[in-house]
Amino acid sequence: MTTHKHRRTEKNLCFKQYYKWILCFILTLYFFASFFVDHDQDHRSSTSISKPLLTNPKPKLFASRAMFESKIHDHKLGFTSQQPNIKTDVFNNLKIYVYDLPSKFNKDWLANDRCTNHLFAAEVALHKAFLSLEGDVRTEDPYEADFFFVPVYVSCNFSTINGFPAIGHARSLINDAIKLVSTQYPFWNRTSGSDHVFTATHDFGSCFHTMEDRAIADGVPIFLRNSIILQTFGVTFNHPCQEVENVVIPPYISPESLHKTQKNIPVTKERDIWVFFRGKMELHPKNISGRFYSK
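The line above is the sequence of Exostosin-like; the predicted structure tokens follow.
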């Protein structure tokens, strides 16, 4: 009996890691694809952020589709102890639902043009990329979703003093969004948010602080520790700001910048530098803290 439970636990863990791998692949694919889409293109009317919350819900489910269909996928994919075999048809079955939150969580921040093109604008680009997806991946029926994307912009609160993005409001804003989706939708509570996806594109990921010592001291908020974080912060050693399921994504680069680079440096050109850097090098730090952000 104990052996059976152990095997079942291993299978469930393998399945969870497998779907996390798929999510990482899908997000990276569409994130890069979004670079080449004109970011000034109007949203389709069917994807308006101001649509009303879920009405006339179906009977409550107690696990996401990814969980309660585990037995169906298990025999098709042939999981291994290392990495599962990937089959094309699985990607066709993956579904992501994008919450339509009140505008104070996202759309209102776009009043500042910098929100869509600054260093931390990946949170906006990902949201737009998800909204532009056809029904093959994004679903408008949350009951068939494997993952739930919660679009909250926390990096667009620019200081009127120095122009830097301030994120002191990030924790409370995301917590308010979680309170909303957990009370007006059934999906957060059935998995404690483990199939919900957030973005944290500022310094030190979901610790939401610009200073590392403060970020470490505060850690990842309790209300996010069971979810999946798309973050630009990533290190190869243990770090308190990575003590959460996370997918490391590249920082934002505008489509115009990419087009200019491609024009000046053809894709087929032989390269001897394989490093990507996005940020600011400061030999003599001038930021408000006087600390080094790069080495």
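Note on the example: Residues 30-88 have pLDDT under 50 and may be disordered. The chain has one domain: 2-256.
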